[in-house]
Amino acid sequence: MCCQREPLGTKSVNVATVRPTVSKLPALTPRSRLPTPGMKQKQTFSICGEKRKASGSPNAADKKICLNLSMSSDVSSASDLSTVSSLSRTSSGSRKVTVPVSRGKTVSRVAGTNGPRTIAPRGAAVGVAGKRPVPVASTARKAPGGAAGRPPPRPASSTTRPPTTKTNTSGKAGVGGGKKRAAWDLKGRLQDMEAAMTQLLKQKENLEMETCTSGDRLAQMEELNNKLQGAVVEKDSEAQSIQQRAARLQQQLRDVEDEHDHKVKKLQRDISDAEFERATITRQKETLESELTAVRQEAAGLRSTVASLSAAQEGIRAELASVKLLLEAAQEAGRTKDGQITDLKGVVKAQNETMEEMTLKMREHEASRRKLHNTIQELKGNIRVFCRVRPLLGDEITSNEDPTMISHMNFPDDDGKVVELEKLNDANPNESTISGKKGKYDFMFDRVFPPTSTQSIVFEEISQLVQSALDGYNVCIFAYGQTGSGKTFTMEGATDGDNAELMGMIPRAVEQIFRSAADLKEKGWQYEVEVSFLEIYNETIRDLLGNGKDNVKHEIRMVAANSNEVAVSGLTHVKVTTERKISDLLRKASENRAVAETKCNKRSSRSHSVFCMKLTGRNIHTEETTLGLLNLIDLAGSERLKDSGSQGARLKETQSINSSLANLGNVIMALANKEHHIPYRNSKLTHLLQNCLGGSSKTLMFVNVSPKEECFSETLNSLRFATKVCLMFCFSLWPKTELDLIKGQKKATVSYHTLNRVYTN
Ligand SMILES: Nc1ncnc2c1ncn2[C@@H]1O[C@H](COP(=O)(O)OP(=O)(O)OP(=O)(O)O)[C@@H](O)[C@H]1O
Compositionally biased, Low complexity: which spans (predicted)? Predict the structure, then answer.
C-alpha cells in the first residue's frame, strides 16, 4: 500500500541497517559545533551500528553500517536534534526507524520485510545509499500487504482513491458501450439497471473494505503516535543528558580557558621577567663596557707607567752596580769592624761585670739609704707635730678681708715653725701665756702651715714618712683638732671635680706608695698592699669596708703572744694593686659613714677613723722582706666639756672622745718618759695603734686650727695639747738626768723658749 508523500527535497536518508542501540547518538564534539537556537546550518550526523552477515555465512564478521542523514533545516532548538533520529521495534519484531527531519515531518522505514529496504517519506524518493530511489507507490504495488501480511493502508487522500464507476442516473447511457437505450427497450434498460446495481454493490463492498482498512490504519497510526511520543520522551531525556554533558563540556572548556588564561598570564609574567632580566643584563653589559673602557685606559696608562718604570729600572740597575761596589767596600770595612767588635765585646763583658758590681753596690746603697733615711727620720723625731691653719671660708670672710689673713694669728719666722696667737678682745687676766705677754701666745712645732699652704706643700713634709712605711716601718699620722678645723680635708681632701690639688694625704700617700713600689721593682723589690678602714665611735669599732649592715662586734687581739702586732677580728682587708681601687674603697667607706650619720647626727666628727695600709715587701735578689704599716687617722673633733655645754648622749660622746684623746696623750707621754708601762689598753684607739706608737715607729700629729676668732679658746686648747706631745718628744731625747732637773724646777708649765734654749744647747 502506498501513501502520498511530501517530497523530501534536499533531505536524503540512506539506510542500511540500524541497530537498536542506534538511539545513542555519537559523542558531540566541540561546543562551537553544537547548534544554537536560531542557527541555520547544514548538519550531517553519522549513526553507526553493526550488522551481521547472512546467517548462512558462519564466519561472517560484523560489519559496520552507517545511517547517513544530511539535512538542511532550521534548528529552532537543541531539543529538535533529539528527535532527529529514533528507532523503535514493531510488535512483529521488525525494526522501524522513524526520522522526523523537521516538525511534523517524519521518515519511516520498516525493517525486516522481504522487499527492498526503503524509507518512505511522504512523496519523497528513498533508496539504499548509492542506488536510485524507487518510487514508493510502485514498490507498494509490487508487494501488496507485504508487512506482517496486512493489507496496505488506504491512502488518506481522496485523490489517491481508486477510480469509481460513474453511475448513469439519467439512464441515457447503457452499461456496455454507453449507448442510450430506447425508451421502449425496457428489457435492455432493466439489464443496464441490474448491471448498475451490481456495480453499485461492488462499489459498496469496496467502500466497506476501505472503511475496514481505514480503521486498521487509524489504530496503527495511534500505536505509532504512542511510540513516537515515547520516543520523544526518550529523546528529551537524551537531550537533557546531552545538555548536561554539554554543560560539563562547557565547564571543562571554561576550565581549559581559565588554565589557558593562567598560562598566558604566567607566560606574560615570564616575558616581563625576561625583559627585566634582559634590561638588567643590558645595563650590566653597558657597565661592563664602560669598565672595560676604563680598564683599557688604565692598561694604556699602566703601559706607559711600565715604560717609565723600565727606564727607571735601568737607572736603578746602574745605581745597584754602584751600590754593589760600595757594598764590597763596606764589607771590607765590615771585616775590619768585626775585629773592632770582638774588642768591644771584651769591653762590654768587662762593663757587665762592672754593672753587676754596681747593682750589688746599688742594693747595698738601697739598704744604706733605708738606714740613713730612717736615721734622718729619727733625727727629725719619731714623734712630730705639724700645725695647720685653714683659711677663712664662705660666711666667715667679712668684706674686704683676705681669707688667708687672720687677725688674731701671726706666722713670724721664716722657717715656718712658729705660730703666734693673740687674743684681741676680752683677754683673760688669769690666762697663762708662753710669751709672758697677756693675751699673746707663741707655739713652736716641727712645721706650721699657714692658711696659704696647699695640700701638695703639706704632703711634701709627710712623704718621707710614707717612704719609711715602704721601707718597713710603722707610721701613724694623726689629724687632731676641733670640729670644722680641717682634719678630714687634710687627710682625705675635698672633691671638687677633678681638681687634683685638693687631694688629701691618704690618696697622695697611696699614689706615692704605688709609684715608689714601681721604682723599687728594678731593684728587686715586690710589694703587696692590703687595706682596711674602720671607725671608733663611743669606743666601738665599725668596719667601713664591710657591707655596712653588720652588727659584728669587732675585738682587738694580739696576733701572737710574744709580738706587739695587733689585729681586729672580723675586719675587712682588701688587697689592692691599683690606686683606682683605693679610691673606690675610700668612696665605699664614705658611703658607709654617711649611712651611719643618718643614725647619729654629725657622727663623722664624733668618731675616730683609721685608714690602714699594710705594705709587705720582698726582694727577689736578696730574699729580704719588710712589713710596714701606714695608719692615717682622722681623730674626732676635740671639745672642752665646759665650753661645749653638752648633755645626755652628746655629753657621753664628748667624754668618750676626750678620754680617748687624753689616753693618746698619756701614751705619748709614757713613751717619751721611757716608762716601763705604756697604757695602750686604756682606749680602743691606743690599743689598736700600740705597735705603731713607740719603738722605731714614726708618729706625726697634725694639729688643725680653725681661723675663726670665736674658736680662740678651742684653738688655744688644741695648740696646748699638741705642744704637750711635742714637749714629751723633746724630753724623750734628753738624758734622764736633765729631765729630772727640769722636773725639779717645779714649774707649772715649760715654756717654748726654755725648751728651745735647752734643745739648741
Ligand atoms: N686648708 C683648707 N683649705 C680650704 N678649705 C678647707 C681647708 N681645711 C678645711 N677646709 C674646709 O673646711 C670645712 C671643714 O673642714 P673638715 O670637714 O675637714 O673639718 P673637720 O675638722 O674634719 O671637721 P669634723 O671634725 O666635723 O669632721 C670643709 O668644708 C673643708 O673643705
Answer: 77-95, 156-172
